[in-house]
Every structure is written in structure tokens, then in C-alpha cells.
Specification:
With 408 residues, this protein is an alpha/beta fold. The protein has 15 helices and 14 strands. Bound molecules: zinc ion. The site of zinc ion has 5 residues, from loops.
């Protein structure tokens, strides 16, 4: 690691530490849990290459300890708020090609599943991603990541799953490794998702055997991913197939994540809770049983409201999950088919308008709770002494200045 220096940010109009959200483990977040400090200041370490060190001190600017008064500082003059760095805990960032030709069909009412049956959908992106070089995938992913960084995101999870063969899955995971070197100021999380769909050139049983016996051992051996995700849904993987894959992943020290109850209720949210998955994501069609199971578990419920908008379906039953005591996160699901929108702030706008989420719930959903969905909550997700110094400045004086404007 290169040497580190100490910096400060002074006179934030409001500084939200999120300390109370951590104390409640992200459940039932309220305004009083945000740790609001008026005219706030933050003192932190940063490495020479831009990688974050630790938070050294946080409090009102008037109480800044004497030993930090001469460190290099940025004065916000009360014009911007300071919050924990935004965490986008569910993206499919590495892919080639686009699916612009599907947009007119989708707008005209053709379903995601019908488009997939006719050669579109994930399979179309698989073809383009298989054909692209690692260098080209890296170039495309870099541009997307730069854009997300300007929107305030500091931690980004990205899944493979547009290869559906060993060579391309590894190629996509290696792109994430390369991105870590290009963006030392960001925390990138890698998830293997060979079980995103089934390849057209291999039969179902053989492909699952390949995942179990070839893909997962290789991914673990080369340390190319921390997590393993499976798309459990009608027309995709069954709960029992997912169980085999995620149990094998666990043996190899990869944590489980589940694309759950998106297109239909398959009981996959309850399954995610049962196997101790880090998160159950989507939940558009979750049953009351699934809601109770998630609320009683350590599995984070992840809403992807951009996907519901794009698929023209009803939003996830957010209030029911929040009231039941589930730990709720919000993410983009950035991908070329069902949500080609890289903006996490835009997802907050949708969550506020379509799911009735409060300011405190939205704050928790993209900070501490999203860190839980990635297993990072011990070091990341709040601005407290000793935590990693990942933070975001909002465009205006209040946290909500981040998401009341829309579409960028
Ligand atoms: Zn997804």
C-alpha cells in the first residue's frame, strides 16, 4: 500500500453518520437513527493512490480537535450534505452489446419471457459478450463505472452471467479484477452468476454439472468472486437446482445471493432466508410467507425499482416488508435488458414515489443495509470512527437533494 495522508471535510450542511441504523441492524430505520450532525466535519485517511483509509473523527465543525486543524481540508460552506458512500449492491455491469431493439417490443406490451423465447433477452447479450475481447469488455465497463462514480456510488457489486460457459464467465470476472486496479478509490465486489440462464448449446443437466464441478471450483481457486448468485424463477432455475449450486458455493467459501420471486412466486425468498443467503433480490411477486421468512432472517431484501418500472410491473410490496421488520436495500440492477439505468439516485426517486419509502428508509437502503447485502457491514456503510472512509457529497444542502431531481 502506498503511504497515506490525513484530510478533512468541513462545514457540511448536514452530515449523516448512520450510526443509529447500525445499532438497529438496519431494521425500522427512522430519522433519529441517521446520526444527523449540523455543520458537520469529517477527518479521514486516504492513500496516495486514492484508496480510502479509515475515518479518524466525525462531529460538528466547531468541535474539530486541535491536532486536525492544519490538515488539508475541503470547505463545503454549508452548501452540501455529507453521507456514507452510496452502495450499489446488485449490478450486471460487465457485458457487451445492447438490447435497444427490444425496447419497442417491450413498450408495446411483449413480455420479458416472450422476448427471451424469440432469441432476445439474456441470450442476445450472451452472444455479444462471448464475442467481445476482455479488453473491449474492460473499456465498456470502465465508462459505466466512471458514470456511476459521478453519481455518488463508492461500492459496486457486479455479477458475471453473460457467458454461460467457463471461458466467458472467467473473462467477465477477470474484467472486475482489472477494474479494481483502475479504480482504487472504489470498492468493487465480484459475484459469479453462471446460473443466470441456461446456454443454448448445452443441455440443462450437463450445464448444472459444469457449474458444480468446473466453474465454481475454478472461480474459487482463482479467487475471482466472493459471492454466488442464482436466478430462481419460472423458466430459469428451480429452488432445488439453486440449492445444489449455492451449497457447493458455500463449501468453496462463496456466500449465497438469490434473484428471488421476480417474474413469479417460486418461494425463492423463503428459500434464500432458509439457506442464509446474504440477500434476496427483486421480490416483485413475494408471498406473505416469503415476507415473514425474510423479516425473521439475516437475509437482506433488495428492491430493484428500475426493473419493475422497465418491465411495467407493480413495485415490490415495500411497506409490508419494512413493517414486518425486514432489512431493506435498494439497488439499480443495472443491466442491458431489464434496467439499462446506472443511476442509484434515480432508484431512490422511484422507491420514494412508487414504494412510499421515507428519507430514513432510503438512506439505510443505500448505505448500511446495502453493505449487509454484500457482507461488508463491519467495515463499510456508516461514517463512524474506524470505518472505511467511503463517503458521498450531495448536490444540495439536504440528503434528499440527491434524489428529488430525476433522470441523471
Ligand atoms: Zn439482476
Amino acid at each position: 500500500m502506498p503511504p497515506k495522508s490525513i484530510r478533512a471535510i468541513l462545514h457540511a450542511s448536514e452530515l449523516l453518520t448512520g450510526a443509529g441504523v447500525r445499532l438497529k441492524d438496519g431494521r425500522h430505520p427512522e430519522e433519529t437513527d441517521l446520526g444527523r450532525i449540523e455543520d458537520g466535519a469529517l477527518v479521514y485517511e486516504v492513500f496516495k493512490n486514492g484508496a480510502p483509509g479509515k475515518v479518524l473523527w466525525v462531529g460538528p465543525t466547531s468541535k474539530l480537535p486541535a491536532q486536525y486543524k492544519r490538515v488539508k481540508s475541503k470547505n463545503l460552506r454549508g452548501k452540501q450534505a455529507l453521507i456514507p458512500g452510496l452502495i450499489d449492491c446488485h449490478t450486471h455491469l460487465v457485458f457487451a452489446g445492447d438490447r435497444a431493439d427490444e425496447f419497442a417490443l417491450r413498450s408495446a406490451g411483449v413480455s420479458y419471457e416472450e422476448i427471451a423465447k424469440n432469441g432476445g433477452g439474456i441470450q442476445k447479450t450472451v452472444q455479444a459478450t462471448r464475442a467481445a475481447s476482455e479488453r473491449e469488455l474492460l473499456r465498456l465497463a470502465c465508462a459505466r463505472l466512471k458514470l456511476m462514480r459521478t453519481l455518488g456510488v463508492r461500492v459496486i457489486e457486479m455479477k458475471s452471467g453473460y457467458g454461460l460457459d467457463l471461458e466467458t464467465e472467467l473473462k467477465c470476472l477477470r474484467v472486475t479484477q482489472a477494474l479494481r486496479k483502475t479504480f482504487p478509490d472504489l470498492h468493487l465486489v465480484s459475484t459469479y452468476m453462471g446460473a443466470h440462464d441456461f446456454p443454448k448449446d448445452v443441455d440443462r443437466t450437463s450445464y448444472i454439472e459444469q457449474i458444480l464441478e468446473v466453474h465454481l471450483p475454478r472461480v474459487a481457486k482463482e479467487r475471482l468472486a466472493e459471492h454466488c448468485d442464482v436466478f430462481v424463477d419460472r423458466g430459469y432455475y428451480t429452488v432445488e437446482e439453486a440449492r445444489r449450486i449455492l451449497e457447493k458455493a458455500k463449501q468453496l467459501k462463496l456466500s449465497a445471493k438469490v434473484h428471488a420471486d421476480e417474474l413469479s412466486d417460486t418461494g425463492s425468498a423463503a428459500f434464500a432466508a432458509e439457506i442464509g443467503a446474504l440477500s434476496a433480490d427483486h421480490l416483485l411477486k413475494i408471498s406473505d410467507r416469503g415476507i415473514q421468512a425474510l423479516a425473521a432472517s439475516q437475509t437482506t431484501a433488495v428492491f430493484l425499482p428500475g426493473t419493475a418500472l422497465y418491465l411495467k410491473t407493480t413495485a415490490a410490496p415495500a411497506r409490508k416488508l419494512l413493517q414486518a421488520g425486514a432489512r431493506v436495500a435498494v439497488s439499480t440492477d443495472f443491466n442491458p435488458g431489464s434496467c439499462p439505468c446506472p443511476s442509484l439516485p434515480a432508484m431512490l426517486t422511484l422507491s420514494a414515489l412508487h414504494m412510499g419509502m421515507s428519507r430514513a428508509e432510503l438512506f439505510a437502503a443505500v448505505t448500511y443495509n446495502a453493505a449487509c447485502a454484500l457482507g461488508l457491514q463491519r467495515t463499510t456503510g456508516t461514517l463512524e470512527r474506524g470505518m472505511r472512509a467511503l463517503f458521498t457529497l450531495t448536490p444540495g444542502e439536504k440528503f434528499e437533494s440527491l434524489y428529488y431531481g430525476f433522470g441523471y
